[in-house]
Design a protein that fits this description.
5% strand, globular, five-stranded parallel beta sheet, three-stranded antiparallel beta sheet, mainly alpha, Rossmann fold
Amino acid sequence: MAGRDLRALFSTNDRTLDTAEAFTNRQGQWEFAVAALAEHLQLVSGPGFDPEDVEAARNNVVVFHGVGGIGKSTLSRKFEASLADPEHRPAQWRAPAWREARILPVRIDLARSASPDVEKVVLSVRLALAALGRPLPAFDLALRRYWEHQHPGELLEDYLNRGGLAARFGKALPQQMQSALADVAQALMLPGTVGSAIGQVTGALVGALRERRQTVRALAGCARLADLLESEPDLDTLSYYPHLLAWELARTPPAKRATPVILLDAFEEIGDRTHRDFERFLQRLVWLMPNAFFVITGRSRLQWGDEALRGQLDFTGPTAWPGLATRDTAPARTESPAPGRERQMLVGDFSFEDSDDYLARRLSVDGRPLIDEGIRRVIGQRSHGLPLYLDLSVMRFLDLRRSGNTPRPADFDHDFPALIARTLSDLTAPERNVLRSVSLFSSFDITLATRAAGLPRQAPALRLVERPFVRETPFELWPFHLHSLIRATIRGADDQTDDRWSPADWHQAAGRAFVALGEQWRDGSDHDRLLLVGCLRQGLAIARDFALGLDWLTEAAWTYVGDSVWEPLDLVAGAEEEGAAVTAADALVELLSTLARRQHENRARTAERLLAVTDTGLLPAELSDMAVYYRAKAQRDLGHTEESRQGMRLVADGGGRLAPSARRGLAHLSRLAGDFTTALEAAERLGWEGRHHRVVGDVQWVQGDMPLAAQAFGAARAEGEEHGKSGEAAMAQAMRAFTLAFTSEPSADAEIDLGEHLLAQVDLRAATLDVRIAALLRDAGTDVGVEERAQALAAEISASGLLFIQAKLELARAFHHAIRDDQAGLASSVSRLRELTREGYYAYYVDIAHFMADLPLDTPSRARWLAEQRTVRQRWRALVLDRRTLLASGPTAGAR
């Protein structure tokens, strides 16, 4: 379809310019549907297909979903017309691949305005099948019985005439039903008039089916017919009758055989995701008619492939609906054809290719696109596929030419105020207020939208989210978000509408949005990390953009830090954009982003960034303490222990929230220096807030007392779980796995597995490395590539700047060499340990390496061991000897 673009035509005097309306024809959706239908036809025509199989996976449905107003209903109607008559198929749509198959399309409008119900849906399908020109006795008898029970005294023909179904589908059904009833009555040799004998006919038929009489052999092939005829003829039973249709279709003579294509439109209007009664009936229709093909259009993806709906619907999960499951949950199957192929498609904005095609065809000279490729690329990327933006860009192109300028790509990195006016044109004043307010959010819900707009009722927000420029992702924390281009334009363009907002209006709305986010966070669960991180991301962005005070962000920041999970906040601080932080929110963004990213960057960079944050002086004292404390931790990891001690002492003396953690940090520094007595005494005073059990474990494992250390780490993990601190539990378990990996305990595998499981839920680089070193320790002394794995891990640790982890890895390598009595390898490890601990911290690792190999110390130990040095030596040597014994007991004794 193409016509003259009169607006463009009257925008230029250039008569060589060809202007045409570009029509986007949804060819991709058509090809998607017909390809799936072709696979369906191949499947149902195969020798192994059984319409009565109610266990096999279903792949007889495609779903087109998208926002309201995007053209789904038009698409559904076009599909129906194109399948019914090739003459109605758009020229751009290629002819289907099948040749001989007969298709019977029937479109059923589920919109509330069409007053849909289960009876209408089932009757519409049966009426469409009347085109086969023959009774369908199994179904027709069941339907006749249902009708006389549920509609006594009402003729089905009158009902069809009154509801318009007879006018749409014809009047063949009552006659076909009467014929089916007469044929069965005659086969059963029943007396009396057929018209009044439905109860007698069905009763006699059931008996004959149960007795397998030859007189009803034609119907006896339907295994479940007798059960359906004996069931109470209510609405629930009616929803199972499509099974009879499927059976009748399969036994239709080849000359009359046809494949129904049932198009269910406006699927979102049959209920909601709490009340699924009607959806359950429709799902049965799809499931029980595996030889029919269904095209469903609605606003949301169909959830039938989701296991979470088990119990709400009859058939759920990726095994039942492989084409409706998300790609990461769909099972790998090979019985085909293409059982795991995605069967759901978003009907949304233009693709980049469609946008480019649109722009290329709108303006041309001598058949060549007037808008060059570079400009088309910029417009397409900026448009996010929004057709209106493409149209406005074409007019801008003509405006630039008319003014004597040569359009360039940079001219189209542009916001169109007209986009706002066009977007707002059909909105009510409250809806426009909500739209501007929600542009402050990256995503939102109805409550946030209403609060940010300062409205007393939710109705305007509820109406707004039905608009096509509001996208819905049902399972997100906040399900709605504006079309990216609409949001950017509303926030950034020079709005010239009559009710445009002043800077003061924007600031007030930002304040309301900020408060609403804080209230949602405070009202949520204490352990709802998703809500916490979402509120932080949006709240920090709003506070930064509008120079708001920190308010609830301070407490939220402490909660975020307190669990050591470190989800990425995906925020870019203003300091990086402007060269220096200018608000407290800027500084807090940089602080939290640094803490999250420290798991993935060198600790030297972390220390540098945290120093810059404290130097701004923008943070309140308690948040400044946070920066000082974590900088001290980074310095300790780098081996800058004196600077670390100064920072820890400053925070501990301040008595703030991190004072217990800082006192733990001081205890760790004592342990690093080999002053184990002081570290252990400090641990006894730390309590839960100072993570006392973990400190005890850290002291005890270097004494070679692995059972006591493992017990302490286990208590630390349990305490972390008791307080809902998944990060603490994961760190403690990582060290428990590390400790037990030195031993010959068979439980080491399980402890490592548990550590990996707990760490999968958090982002803790050092603890993750501890578990990986534990895996090396578990395999120490064997020939399973321990040294090669250690070298690869050493390179990774070196890039992180985690000096203490590097030393711990080297100690593990020394353990491996001691078990194998590899003197050269041991000497190399000792040499590297000396280099890593040359500042005096962790120097006792060199002592432990000597203990493992039962070698004399080159210099006296400076460590203050908890027991006599001889005892510590014996413990470490015993670990080596125990491993040797285990490995010597059989060729696979050490294999895990």
